[in-house]
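pasting Guanosine nucleotide diphosphate dissociation inhibitor for the record, 444 residues
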Amino acid sequence: MDEEYDVIVLGTGLKECILSGLLSVDRLKVLHMDRNDYYGGESSSLNLIQLWKRFRDSDKPPSSLGPSRDYNVDMIPKFMMANGTLVRTLIHTDVTKYLSFKAVDGSYVFNKGKVHKVPANDMEALKSPLMGLFEKRRARKFFIYVQNYNESDPKTHEGLNLTRVTMKELISKYGLDDNTVDFIGHALALHRDDRYLNEPALDTVKRMKLYAESLLRFQGGSPYIYPLYGLGELPQAFARLSAVYGGTYMLNKPECKVEFDSEGKACGVTSEGETARCKKVVCDPSYLPNKVQKVGKVARAIAIMSHPIPNTNESHSVQVILPQKQLGRKSDMYLFCCSYSHNVAPKGKYIAFVLTEAETDKPEVELKPGIDLLGPIDEIFFETYDRYEPSNDPSVDNCFISTSYDPTTHFESTVMDVLTMYTAITGKTLDLSVDLSAASAAEE
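structre below
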């Protein structure tokens, strides 16, 4: 290979594929390689036989579960905020033409041992069994403040500078109790722990507004959407985009060793005795293990069931957030369920995932609060995986490494990582502000 590329991307995980697509659209010369013979890397979707091979070391799943090919089981299960950064990126790049999405039925929160629908605006707050009558009034006032808040219009700020006022201070102004704060912080603003309470309130208010806008976008029962046939469709859609703009793909390339010049800068990738030269390398943590550090561990369970999750209004697709405080943990637990309505399982079958940041080495024990909400289970698989983030300085070695996927069941943190890498590589910020109104019109 005597060509030189601007960027070589290693691994076809979702983050790498989005980045490859964005860089190709920018007319950079991109070569994309993967040691696997399939797209998706860690974020692929498996059929039933692949699932059994991975977890049971067998290629004979029980016939009672239906045809293997009818399953698309996500290894990194996440929903997309209908108005969120990933959807904006899909619209900005026109990748939406390769995908079909469907709204997710429900968004729920675990509180005092029960599952409740998440109230997302002042009207829902008034109906919610999560709060008593007086608390509902206080919560409604708070929701109205958030709904009306406009960063560029001081009249809506009520004299508060949210870049300085902490979330704790804002909440105390409205006198909300701990239970209400719990679902606002974890189920609406989607914070993973309680650190946000001591940080400026602006970030949380923006997150709540994103939730409410996403809910309005499809008029569904939740702010989330999810692709038909599972998330394995996303990396392939971005790979297609990259190819349209001249990106080159090579799957099933063993080894993929990054080469460095005398100054320690990445200058190429060698596979099967051939070296492709490049100016920059993008990869997931598995390709450069000596340039990443372990930052945590995710525990997860994958369950196949023949019914929806109880107490979620028969929802075929649903997210339930179990806030850390409700479980006496340091981090939240997430419950994610999808089914044949999104073409990820045969008719009558549901796939549920329970995920959390692992605090022990016993996923079976640790995930029990989430598993207890599932009802009868046909089959269940447990595993833990380590989370890594880069420890290198890309300005020194030209290596841009993504962070591992966290246990959250939405894509906001995933896409922010990609956009940060995009800016570091190109020196530009991707403008995602312009596309949504046109897209909404097109959807309607």
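The CA atoms of residues 292 and 391 lie 5 Å apart.
The chain has 15 helices and 19 strands.
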